[in-house]
Amino acid sequence: MATTTRQEELKAAIRVTLIGSVLDLVLGVLKIAIGIVSSSLALISDGIHSLSDLVTDIFVVVIARFSHAEPDKEHPYGHRRFETLGTIILGIVLFAVAGIICYDSLFRLGDPDVLPMPGWAGILVAIASIGSKEWIYRYTKTVADAQNSALLLANAWHSRTDALSSIAVLIGILGARLGYPAMDVLAAVFVALMIAKIAWDLISNSLSELVDTALPPAKVEALRQHATTCEGVRDVHELRTRLHGGRIFVDLHVQVDERISVSEGHYLSDHINASLKRTFPEITDIVIHIDPEPDTGNSTTRLDLPLRAEVEPLLNERWRKALPEGALKRVGLHYLENRVEADIYIDIMYLNKELESILKNLVKDLPWLGNVNFYGMP
């Protein structure tokens, strides 16, 4: 699957938003002008609504530039949470729009005579607004889905609310001309409730992201199953996920063969990382912890075990008289089951069963030492 760069995503986001802003400007001016000429207060209000969309379009462009910026020293994980914050602000704007529509509708319900008889020109403008705003909604949503952008999706829904309000205007004008002015009020209230529901979904989803809510269980299980199938993986546990500006961050523990080298474990980690990102392109960051043994998170790891800087000198001191100088080639350490196992590599010229027995007896009193295995080296 081809991937896009941040700059390509930014250009696409700005392009669709600027097209929408031009459309909002043209529709806003046209609705207000025709509303005045045709005596349609609803159309004038809808025109003001369209012009208000210009403000959010500018806001989206500014936030998009921030959110697509490369990671820096102050924001090492990137800037995509600016997009999450922007989505919440847009959701609040949509709530405000819903409230204004409800207030205006209830005001007109209390005094239906304040709405003059609108002309037929308003109907044509309302129809043009519905078609054009639905088109820009679908265009913006396509780009939003491609980028998994909550901010662009919020702006797409903002465009659709304009189309919905134009539907209310159309119903209201038709109802007024047919002698049923209450139809305008009922349609407007219905649209306001739809807008409020959209706003609630946008805000709640973004707030869930800000508090690091995990992905849906089915998605998490799909990630686990794929990681488990990677070569060299014995088990996957402690898999944690969260969203970051529409992208997925993953932390997981992977159990591998306890005897593999550090470099092999590192390579397996890179292999799992690449495989997951190929299968789930929306993943941005993966932190993999390699475990040499089962680790459910409930066991307590001893931190008082000696490290190499202490183990090697101690073994050399214990074995100094039993081993010829230069016979000890290398020491491999394995921290398993809260003990230290040692792989001892000795010059093959000196290694024999008697020497192994002597060396083991010299260190058998060390309480932290587990199995000691001997191997010959040329």
Question: Would you mind describing this structure in some detail?
Answer:
The protein has 378 residues and is of the alpha/beta class. It folds into 3 domains: 6-210, Cation efflux protein transmembrane domain (Alpha-lytic protease prodomain-like); 217-291, 2-Layer Sandwich (Alpha-Beta Plaits); 308-377, Cation efflux protein, cytoplasmic domain (Alpha-Beta Plaits), CATH 3.30.70. 60% of the residues lie in helices and 15% in strands. It contains 10 helices and 6 strands; from the N terminus they run αααααααββαβαββαβ. A 3-stranded mixed β-sheet has the order 1-2-3, covered by helices on one side. A 3-stranded mixed β-sheet has the order 4-5-6, with helices on one face. The longest helix is centred in the first third of the chain and has 33 residues, at 6-38.
Describe what is shown at a glance.
The protein is built from ten helices and six strands; from the N terminus they run αααααααββαβαββαβ.
How is the topology of this model organized?
Layout: H1 6-38, H2 41-67, H3 81-110, H4 120-147, H5 150-177, H6 182-210, H7 217-228, E1 235-244, E2 247-255, H8 262-279, E3 283-291, H9 308-319, E4 328-336, E5 339-347, H10 353-363, E6 369-377
Parallel strand pairs: 2-3, 5-6
Antiparallel strand pairs: 1-2, 4-5
Helix pairs in contact: 1-2, 1-4, 2-3, 2-5, 3-5, 3-6, 4-5, 5-6
